[in-house]
Each structure stands twice: as structure tokens, then as C-alpha cells.
Amino acid sequence: MEYDPTLLLQVEDVHKSFPGVNALSGMRLDLRHGEVLGLVGENGAGKSTLMKLLTGIYIHQEGEFFLDGEPLRVRTPLDAEKRGLSIIHQELNLVSHLTVAENIWLGREPRSGGVFTKPREQIARTRDLLERLEMDLDPKALVANLTVAKQQMVEIAKALSFDAKVLIMDEPTSALNETEVAQLHTLIRRFVTPETGVVYITHRMPELKSITDRITVIRDGKYITTTDTATSTLDEIISHMVGRAIDTSAKPVNVRDDREVILSVRNLTTKSALHEVSFDLHKGEVLGFAGLMGAGRTETARAIIGADPHVSAEITLRGTTVTISNPAQAARMGIGYLSEDRKKYGLMLNLDVAHNVTISSIQDKFTTGPFEKKSAIRQAAQDAVELLKVKTPSMTQQVKFLSGGNQQKAIIGRWLVKDCDVLIFDEPTRGIDVGAKEEIYQLLNHLAEQGKSIIMISSELPEILRMAHRVVVMSDGYVTGTLQADEATQESIMALATTRLSEKELP
Ligand SMILES: Nc1ncnc2c1ncn2[C@@H]1O[C@H](COP(=O)(O)OP(=O)(O)OP(=O)(O)O)[C@@H](O)[C@H]1O
Ligand SMILES: [Mg+2]
After folding, report:
1. Which residue CA neighbors atom 25 of ligand 1 most closely?
2. Are residues 63 and 187 in the same domain?
């Protein structure tokens, strides 16, 4: 293999397969000194697998890696760290019962005499680091209590705390909103010097334009092409990715404001997060929920379905006042909630695809007496997998072996099988590739046409603008406004999202 001295990282002819899956074949990739290289491809294309090979999580079967001209042989994540490779994992890799500081320095704790850990020094170092990165995080907070977005921040802080040469970011922004993405991009620009480089994986196409220098496209485990960002259009990149053109300018369909109210929420207040949240959801409507991190959108959803307690609220479902005390009861009443945190509240990683897709419907659809109807379960799962194009070798594959985006599709499938009247989708397309996103949008439109009512919480404004018949905007625990589809723009939403009602009310 020829080594090219202008390259920081070189990957040549790498192969990797898993039982039933050829994840990578003949894969290559070049990272130049001082550049941010975008790496894109559909769900299951092999992006994360390649990054896991580079950082010693998997061992490759064939192929070569070079770092700064030297052969790179990493057998463990520790080897990778020592060679200056730092990674932000797509599936956040934090230990939930430890604090922010403990997670950042795990395995590298400051010690006196090499033995006793020094918690105070660790906290102080964490404060310094977070201050330097301008991140609003409490070093002593337990990771279990953080939102997904904050957890993502911790991962980013951790990766930047190493003295890294190559920073690998596997969808670092999937849980972040536009402001936070801009902050991260500033950090990346500060990180890049002529000695370092970044591999940046994302499904949010516009980000590629703002942060990358070049973009490498892979498909089905194979290298397709690398282009200069400045001279290529997103449409070109997307068509390399999915092998066809996708219309990204579509608008909400079938918007009407004369439909009956199916779910009405009045004055929903919780102890700390929410203040008198009120809104109506109509039959056959897609109601968008927009806002910045911490605005209270997830809290609203969780309080409605009884996952978290509320202080007061009047909730009316199909005209009847209801009290919902837990998510299972909500589901029985026909309200399904897809959580933003698929690992904590959704997926059962060790169960197979069939059970993950059917689990919420097992009792009402897939049992006779004490017995599971095995073939019905498999058939329902098979249908959902085909509809959503989940990439899996079989219905009996454990969900933890699916790629990130395909795990997300599996959980969407669960709510399709459950057949609820009201669907609350919290960041439904997180980690899903552009082509599949468009398919999911069409599916949601189809559900709305059939009379289902959908609440779509999303941090991606283009997604809200693409889908929502009306947009409820929240800020700081308040609803700051509701916009009709034709009033909703990036600007009008952001203006409401940054309105602080709580401060206005102060004398
Ligand atoms: N540990 C594993 N065991 C079995 N199959 C695996 C394993 N890890 C990955 N795969 C399979 O390898 C293929 C590539 O997966 P990978 O996670 O690299 O995709 P990706 O490009 O990162 O996708 P996404 O955009 O959804 O994150 C997929 O078909 C996936 O199911
Ligand atoms: Mg991945």
C-alpha cells in the first residue's frame, strides 16, 4: 500500500462482515490534514462500523489504516485514544449512574500517588473544560437525569478533553437544535489545525455545507465518491447517497382548520418545567411542537401521558375529561408516545426485531389466553419492516445489532402496529437518512389522512415546516404562540422560541 504524505488518515480496502450482513467491502477513505470530512450514506450503509473499526471497538478482517504515514493497528479503544483518535459515538456511551465529571474522566481520573482518586480536582478540571467549551452543564449532575441533548454535550466535551489528532463525530448533532449546532461548529473550527482533522457523520444535510471541506459518500458498505463541498450541491450528494433524487421542498398537505378537536389540553402545569400549557389537537392534523432545548416540549408530552406527574391540568379526549396516570393507560386510551430517548424508554436492545415492533400490542392483538401468537407477531413485524424498509437480516435479529437509524425505524413500526388515534412522536426522524425521512413523512401524512392525529415534536425546523399543519412554539415552559402552516417560517418560529414570558412577567 502506498502512503500519501498529505493525508492524516488513510483507509484502504477494508472489509468487515457480521453474520448475515456484509457491512463493509473494499471501503476506503482519505482524511487530509486540517480538514473536516463529511461522511454520509443511508441507514445501514456502514458509517458507524467503519468508525468502530478505526477506534478499536471492532477488529477488521482485511484492509489497512494509516495515521500520519504510520500503520495504525488499534485493538482496543484505549489503543485508539493513545494514538490520538477520539470518537463521539452515535449511540451515546455514557454511564448513567455516574456524574458528568465522572463520565468525562472515566479511566483517566486524577489520582494522588497513582492510587486515590481526587474528586475535587476532577470537578475543578471539568468546570475548566466546560467553561472553555462554553457548555452549560453541571459537573456534578447525574447523567441519568440529563436530556438526550445534554448527554450529547457530555459526549462532545469528553471527546474534546483528549489531546486528539483525529476527532470522529458520529451524528454529534442528532439531538441538538440549530443554536447548539452552531456552537458545536464553532468548537470544531477551533479544534482544526494543520495537525488535526475531523470525520463528521450526519443525516442533516444542510450541516454538511456549513462545516465540511469535503464529503465522502458510501452506499451498501462500498465507497462511492468524494467531492469538494464548495463545488457540489446537496442534491448531488443526496442522489449519490440514495441513488435517486429527492424533493426536499415539499410542504404540508391537506391542511384544514375545521376539524373536530380530539385532544384538548388546558393549563397543564408541572412543579418546575411547565406553566399553563394549553393547546388543541384536531382529528387528522399534524401539530408541530417547536422550541429550543429545555423549552418543555418533551415534558409536555410526558405529563400528558402520565409518565411524569403534573400539578394541574384539564385534559379532554374525544370530548370527555380524562385522568391519565401512566403511559400504559394512555396507550389503552389510544394515545401512543414515541420517546426522544429510544434507548431509555423505547427499545429493548436484547429482544429481537419482531418483539420490539409488536410489544405494545402483544396483549390486545397477539395473545390467545396465556399464549403468544407467534406467527401473527412475525407477520406484523414483517409488514412493518417492509413498510419502513428496516435493514435487518431477519425478524429474530436482536435490535442492538441494527444501525442507529434502523433502530429508530423499528420503534416507529411499533406505533404503526399499535394503531393509536393520537400519536405523539418526539423527534421521530432522529438519525434517519434523507431518503427514509421523506418516506416517513409520507407515511405520517397518510396516517393523518386516515384520521389519526399526530403531534410531532422536532428540533429540526425544516421538518416542522415540511409537515406541520399548525405549529405550537414553546419557550421556557410556556406556549409562546401557535402558528398556522402559512405563517410558519424559520424566522417566525425562532422569534417565538426565544421569547421569554417568564422574564416579561417580572416587574
Ligand atoms: N454488531 C453487529 N452485529 C451484526 N450486524 C451489525 C453489527 N453492527 C452493525 N451491523 C450491521 O452492519 C450494517 C452497517 O451498520 P452501521 O451501523 O455501520 O450503519 P450506519 O451507516 O452507521 O447507519 P445509520 O445511519 O443508521 O447509523 C447494518 O446492516 C447493521 O445492521
Ligand atoms: Mg451509524
Report:
1. 43
2. yes
